[in-house]
Amino acid sequence: MSTFVDLRSDTVTQPTAAMRAAMMAAPLGDDVFADDPTVNALQARIADMLGFEAALFVPTGTQSNLCGIMAHCERGDEFIVGQLAHCYRWEGGGAAVLGSVQPQPLQNQNDGSLDLQAIEDAIKPDDAHFAKSRLLCLENTLGGKLLPFDYVQSATQLAHDKGLYRHLDGARLFNAAVAQAAQTSKTAQQEARRIAQCFDSVSVCFSKGLGAPVGSALCGSREFISRAHRVRKMLGGGMRQSGVLAAAALHALDHHIERLADDHALAKRLAQGLQGIEGLAVEAPQTNIVFVDLHGAARQQSAALMAHLQESGVRATGLYRLRFVTHLDVDAAGVEKAIAAIRAFFKA
Ligand SMILES: *Cc1c(COP(=O)(O)O)cnc(C)c1O
């Protein structure tokens, strides 16, 4: 392990030696001609795993969501989405800018969900005054929170009953699946599929907890994916020998799903290790993200705390609300180091 522990994001992981070997060994072609065998294998694999007809490999989760929204919606349509959702708040307004698709954001509740009545009330009647309500977008996990599965079922059923399509931003779908599997007798793969099957389309990231260097996949019906394929080209996302990247994602699907439970356990340990420090409110993590809010005197010390962490070889993000993310390149010693650095700062 390196001398610092990087808890800024689960995107910072380096490909493992075995993943690099898989990338080097991958048979390649030109994916714009649809003849990269490794990309084709990945697309078939993730579609099959999540129970869809087809999938599309894209460079980023942002592009995946945008391809999804633009494949579901036309100019003048709208999508209902959470204020905190990545595809509303963190993607440069791409759906509006590039798709002429209007977002209808709703307040997220504490557990990350959108109130069912609020969703229903936001769906516009078919009237020339209004944009056409076309799509509901949910995110799971959102801010590290697992959406309750019965909520996912109710919200997606409601949207379906009202004639809306359903898209899941499942950048961390496998974290959600592993956390959900811990509550049921099913496997993480079964839970991932159960969640995914509530939706018409699902985006998953390989570059987060799964530990691949690059890439996401959008899954849906064959017809939907063929529309998304056209959008991907338009957005500049048609790649060539991208099998070298798809090989990393395939390796991650084979080897890095079950181990997400280790990240979740380390997040719990981190949260537990920070209990009882005055001015720190630690949210109990459900998956791999720990949020710590600073109050009172601790809030005044926040810039000094961040500088102290940096000097102590602990990287995190935030100022008054700190975010620590566990992942493949964080081990138990790294988490203990972070706990010790924070306790030393507060002399706690
Ligand atoms: C990271 C992330 C994305 C996509 O991010 P990219 O950096 O574009 O790959 C989308 N949605 C969520 C919830 C994310 O966490």
What does this structure look like?
This protein has 348 residues and is α/β, with parallel strands linked by helices. The chain folds into two domains: 15-255, 3-Layer(aba) Sandwich (Aspartate Aminotransferase, domain 2); 259-346, Alpha-Beta Complex (Aspartate Aminotransferase, domain 1), CATH 3.90.1150.10. It is built from 15 helices and twelve strands. The strands form three sheets. It has a seven-stranded mixed sheet with strand order 2-8-7-6-5-3-4, with helices on both faces. A three-stranded antiparallel sheet has the order 9-10-12. Helix 2 runs parallel beside helix 11. The site of pyridoxal-5'-phosphate (PLP) has 11 residues, from helix 3. Pyridoxal-5'-phosphate (PLP) binds next to helix 3.
Q: What ligand species are in this complex?
A: pyridoxal-5'-phosphate
Count of β-strands: 12
Which strands sit side by side, in order, in the main sheet?
Answer: 2-8-7-6-5-3-4
**Percentage of residues in helical conformation:** 40-55%
Number of domains: 2
| Rg computed from alpha carbons, rounded to a whole number of angstroms | 21 Å
Query: Mind telling me which CATH architecture of the largest domain this is?
Result: 3-Layer(aba) Sandwich
Shape estimate: globular
Structural class: alpha/beta
CATH superfamily of the largest domain: Type I PLP-dependent aspartate aminotransferase-like (Major domain)
Average pLDDT reading: 97
